[in-house]
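Input record (Table S2, row 261):
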Amino acid sequence: MERFLTKRTQAYCVGKGEHQEQTEEEPGTLGKEPAGPRKRPRRESLESAVLEAGPSWRHIRAEGLDCDYTVLFGKAEADEIFQTLEEEVEYFTGALARVLVFGKWHDVPRKQATYGDAGLTYTFSGLTLSPKPWIPVLERVRDRVSGVTGQTFNFVLVNRYKDGCDHIGEHRDDERELAPGSPIASVSFGACRDFFFRHRESRGKNPCRRVEAIRVQLAHGSLLLMKPPTNTHWYHSLPVRKKVLAPRVNLTFRKILPTKK
Ligand SMILES: O=C(O)CCC(=O)C(=O)O
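Output record (2-oxoglutaric acid complex):
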């Protein structure tokens, strides 16, 4: 979370000349081609087969980076969830929608909201806040993510990008409030956007090492699971893409430590 807590269409690809290891798991029964002329499966039967077989994962691996990517929601369901998020999520306004950079206040270049379990608190822009109580659409996505990952989550940060001008700068989600060893599950709805990982030793004008950046296109209905130690060694960002005109909503599910009494 930038400044936070202190601070496939099966579309998937990586940046030019990248050499990081990426493997794809057999998509269960979907991977087996029938004998004879190829028939294009109907979308509905493909989606129900995915539900039965479980999602097909792409593994993204590099030095200190361990992520898995899949398209978790078929188009019809992703459209419905996106619409509900658009209608029901209540975003921060006022001081919480602004950020202090080098002594000057700026609007955060996206909208943000937090939801989570009762009794949790977190630090945001130096303030101790409580997330809003879960709403059904967020519980639905959270439970689906838990079902396929075997992980539980008690908190979600919602980021809404009205178009390709909205963005998030390079940061790591390495806050002290995060439960040690827990992954972060990033689920995207709406416009497909480029998402970059950059190694911490390869940042800035004079990096001490050259490690290739990794680009992942986060498609409508996709899940990117960022597992430790990814957030220790790699920064991530969602850069400006002026040609993107449509909105996007991203949910990062996290497990944060219970508030000390
Ligand atoms: O919108 C995204 O895909 C990135 C969100 C993010 O980096 C964060 O919540 O920390």
